[in-house]
């Protein structure tokens, strides 16, 4: 299956593991913004059903398709990874051979203890420092890794309501980070902020566990806002 460019000429975005709540939410928001979206899944039929569900919400003008993960990865050079931590390493090892040189991998993985039967409101220690740094070790050197979208409510993403949340973007590649901030800013109510190098993803990932604990206690959909910065800091 071939993909076409979006009306704005933007590059397609492959949402890898995109049939889960976070992947579906991001795919929906970007499809509404006119981006070309490829939903990836272990099961191609499941990916196509997810694409149909988004088209039903957005309309037939939505440029969205569904593919098996490897095919989706090969068809795009902007990759959005939305899988649980326990599946991150094995999936990236599987996809490494089909990643194209110059691709950008945006990783929203959080090493939650729930992935090994613990509490969702705390994170696991990752030997490399963070899930994003682990991803950087697993993909080809020519692929830029960006950590982002950890703290956005997946439930709210898959609605029509504006979000009340900032997205902190961490990467060692300034161009990849800028592109990611531009994509984040396409979601109504979201501001994107440069969070510095990829090593800072460790802190951002831990915030997710804090927010989950708050949501459990208060039955809400907590997000974060960074205040006190000059207007130019927020995209």
Strand order of the largest sheet: 3-2-1-4-5-6-7-8
Order of helices and strands: EHEHEHEHEHEHEHEH
What's the architecture, going by CATH? 3-Layer(aba) Sandwich
Rg calc: 16 Å
Shape type: globular
Distance between the termini: 34 Å
Share of residues in helices: 25-40%
Q: Catalogue the unreliable spans.
A: 1-9
CATH level 1 name: Alpha Beta
Main β-sheet, in a few words? Answer: 8 strands, mixed
Give the topology.
Blueprint: E1 13-16, H1 21-32, E2 37-41, H2 44-58, E3 64-68, H3 69-74, E4 78-81, H4 85-95, E5 104-107, H5 131-138, E6 144-147, H6 154-157, E7 165-171, H7 174-184, E8 190-194, H8 201-218
Parallel strand pairs: 1-2, 1-4, 2-3, 4-5, 5-6, 7-8
Antiparallel strand pairs: 6-7
Would you kindly provide a written description of the structure presented here, covering whatever features stand out?
The protein has 235 residues and is of the alpha/beta class. The chain has a single domain, classed as Rossmann fold, CATH 3.40.50.720. Helix content is 36%, strand content 16%. The chain has helices spanning 21-32, 44-58, 69-74, 85-95, 131-138, 154-157, 174-184, 201-218; strands at 13-16, 37-41, 64-68, 78-81, 104-107, 144-147, 165-171, 190-194. Strands 3-2-1-4-5-6-7-8 form an 8-stranded mixed beta sheet, sandwiched between helices. Strand 2 (37-41), helix 2 (44-58) and strand 3 (64-68) form a beta-alpha-beta unit. Helix 1 (21-32) crosses helix 2. The longest helix has 18 residues, at 201-218. It is globular and about 40 Å long. The relative contact order is 0.13. The model is unreliable at 1-9 (pLDDT under 50).
């Amino acid at each position: 299956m071939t993909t076409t460019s979006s009306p704005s000429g933007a590059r397609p975005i492959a949402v890898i593991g995109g049939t889960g709540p976070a992947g579906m939410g991001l795919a929906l928001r970007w499809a509404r913004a006119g981006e070309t979206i490829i939903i990836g899944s272990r099961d191609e039929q499941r990916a196509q059903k997810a694409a149909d569900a988004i088209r039903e919400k957005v309309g037939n003008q939505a440029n969205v398709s569904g593919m098996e993960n490897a095919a989706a990865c090969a068809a795009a050079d902007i990759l959005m990874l939305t899988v649980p931590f326990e599946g991150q390493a094995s999936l990236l090892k599987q996809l490494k051979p089909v990643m194209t040189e110059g691709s950008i991998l945006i990783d929203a993985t959080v090493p939650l203890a729930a992935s090994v039967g613990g509490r969702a409101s705390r994170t696991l220690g990752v030997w490399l420092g963070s899930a994003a740094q682990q991803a950087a070790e697993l993909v080809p050197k020519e692929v830029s890794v960006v950590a982002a979208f950890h703290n956005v409510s997946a439930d709210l993403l898959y609605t029509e309501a504006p979000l009340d949340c900032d997205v902190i973007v961490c990467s060692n590649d300034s161009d990849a980070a800028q592109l990611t901030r531009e994509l984040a800013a396409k979601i109504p109510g979201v501001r994107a902020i440069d969070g510095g190098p990829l090593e800072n993803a460790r802190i951002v990932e831990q915030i997710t566990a804090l927010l989950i604990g708050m949501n459990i206690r208060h039955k809400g959909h907590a997000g974060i806002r960074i205040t006190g910065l000059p207007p130019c800091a927020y995209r």
